[in-house]
UniProtKB/TrEMBL annotation:
Single GO cellular component term: membrane
InterPro entries in the record: Sugar_P_trans_dom, TPT_transporter
Naturally occurring in which organism (per UniProt): Riccia fluitans
Region (Disordered) location: 1-55
Protein name per the record: Sugar phosphate transporter domain-containing protein
Amino acid sequence: MAPRNVSWTGIGGSEIQDEAVDESAKVPSENIVTMNGTSTGTKSSPGSNGIRRAHSNRVIAGREEDVELGEVDEPFLPQDRPSPKSRNQSLIAGISYCLSSCSMILLNKVLLSGYNLNAGISLMFYQNLISVLVVLLLDVTGLIVTERITWKLVKVWVPVNILFVCMLVSSIFSLRFMNVAMVTILKNVTNLITAVGEIYFFNRHHSTKVWLSLCVMVLSAVCGGITDLSFHGKGYTYQIINCFCTSAYSLRLRKVMDLAKEKTRTKTLNEFTMVLLNNLLSLPLGLALMFIFETKTLLDSPALKVPMFWGVATLSGLLGLAISFTSMWFMHQTSPTTHSLVGSLNKIPLSLAGIVLFRVPTSFPNLISIFFGLFAGVLFARAKMS
């Protein structure tokens, strides 16, 4: 049994494309390709998660054998214990992953609300463009290895990329109208939709613990919405659309993976190729949507005349890509189990920071609903591991 993965193949919504896709299926393993192109063992193929631009968003490779999940029968020998240096690297990797993930969401909120930017599609386009340029630069310098992008591969990937763009755009718009804490809680509904989709499409059934935690998630989301003092109909509509888009992306990605591998020269599809594919193919569609819906809005936006805005927007694009790399680094240093649990716990400081930094009006019942939902997320992560 291969451990689950979390897929972050995009940026815009970041948790959005993050936690946005926390529901990957157990699929066949393949060779893991390191940043210098060498093979280090096996991993399970990435699914969706996820989110995280997202909502993402970015692919995290899992390990085939996971001691924490009880899938290795060999005895634990003293020499197998992690060294202090290894523990330090795991700590640094975990902190880096948490900081990049939280910072991405908060920066997007600053761009959309602080600078009053009403052009979410344009923001997604710019962030994805930054990702493409950085990945291509790393590929040219030999720091990472990507598969050659061919028309055969593009034709297979376009349908899932359309869902990817819808996921990012809806996530960005929901973040504009809603506070960070409620966006985080409502994203939990994605897990329920994905779980139902897994039964229908993959005939995959879940334990009673998983369904109970999903029910708690949905209950907390409903209670949170009822007690939300900053309730915005548009924001909640966009977030519900985002939940369905994220789930559809997650489920569709699992079917496309095997088809896409057959269209590559090496018959594999590593994480960096997926990041490049998703972000590169999103640019033409994003550009078309910009011209149709945001041309006048974008040109009239006062934020474009502020140099600091461009600095923050560029940083958010770089952070979106950083989530991919820190996620993979953290996964390789620890395990899928630890990664999933830390991802759930990471929502707690993110929600608190969103409430404090943006001075969100709240009430005691609303805070209870939020923390109830965050606690349900941790229960869900633990239930999926058992």
